[in-house]
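Exercise 4. Each item below gives a protein and its sequence. For each, produce the structure-token representation.

Item: Amidase (Rhodoplanes roseus).
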Amino acid sequence: MVRPLSALDLARRIEGGEITPADVVARCAEAIAAGDATIGAFAALDLAGAEARAKADGAALAKTPLRGLPVGVKDIFETADLPTGYGSPIYAGYRPATDAALVCMIRRAGGLLLGKTVTTQFAFMDAGATRNPHDPAHTPGGSSSGSAAAVAAGMVAVAVGTQTGGSMVRPGAFCGVAAYKPSYRLLPMVGCKTFSWSLDTAGLFAAGIADVAYAAAALTGRDLRVDRAAPAAPRIGLARPHIWPQASPAMRAAVERAARLAEAAGASVREVALPPVFEDAFRAHGVVQDYEAYRALAHEYDTHRDRLGPRLREHLGAAASITPEAYDDARRIAKRARHALADLMGEVDVLLTPSAPGAAPRGLESTGQSTFNRLWTLMGTPCINVPGLIDDSGLPLGVQIVGRFGRDRAALEAALFVERTIASSPGA
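Answer:
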């Protein structure tokens, strides 16, 4: 398997004149040619366009925040020069008139849009054809399956995904790359197909934590980089939610090992008791998501129901029975849980918890479960998959850092601290 490309290392080499954006595009094109027939990460490609711009504008691109790095974008974001299918046959060949706001940000920052990455249909749970680069017999996760797989296979340095339940952190964990779901609405969702307007959050994949932080800083202009100094030792709360028994023994051991390693490296680590309202909030996530999805996808469900994936069709049918009163109650529960989380986070800087129930399941029928992500997505907090651990079969195991809302840089710095402690330990 081709190793992931470090966006930060490539950017530094471009800045120093060692390589050019065209060199990086060529390297990505080579990886795509070698592996995408098996992996199936891309729904559409524009290699020729990226190559032409890299050659024509290479000197100018080298001075931009993203240095002309190739980027993959999940195919639920609209693009004017590439088809946008939302993972559905309903929109096969659809060409929007404009780019999504985040796509414009990528272009303005000097990123080269290499192609659209595969998404599950409307970013739900009907699995696509993308395979896990670590073992093609296993799922890459979803719904941002193509973005995570493309980064893991070295086909792009940075990729965009979204998370409504666990669609960033889980595929990042399954594919062994960094996945950063920012605080809610840090990245714009204008021009992205809506599933749940209260939950949908755009995020980024890259090889490691410093890479994804660099990309986020380059896109937003915010002080999010964490590579310029050694990360400070964080105060970590080891969080075992009520669903902890649903994590595999290997995942539970991975989280506990990450905690021990971080503590040995100087972090303050303590067990935290999650307030009971979190159990209610965990259930409330599904109510909020499904009530909104039934309305966001009203046209597709009402006029193209037979062309929806079976899981989505059944799910939307059940969602029709959710009352406005139940939805409003779920939103009130979410608000109480956010207040409780803010109180809890007064004692620690970040929480450490599983990124997924375990390693990527075998088979392509399912993208895995978002069990360990839904609560934190509902909270709107930054969530980061920290790569580096593996199970006995050699598949990646990700641990999740959850930060305080709006404190994204602190969360990224803590994630980098944990990543480095894992990398420096034998037999990670």
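Check: Residues 7-220 form a domain with the Amidase signature (AS) enzymes fold (CATH 3.90.1300.10).
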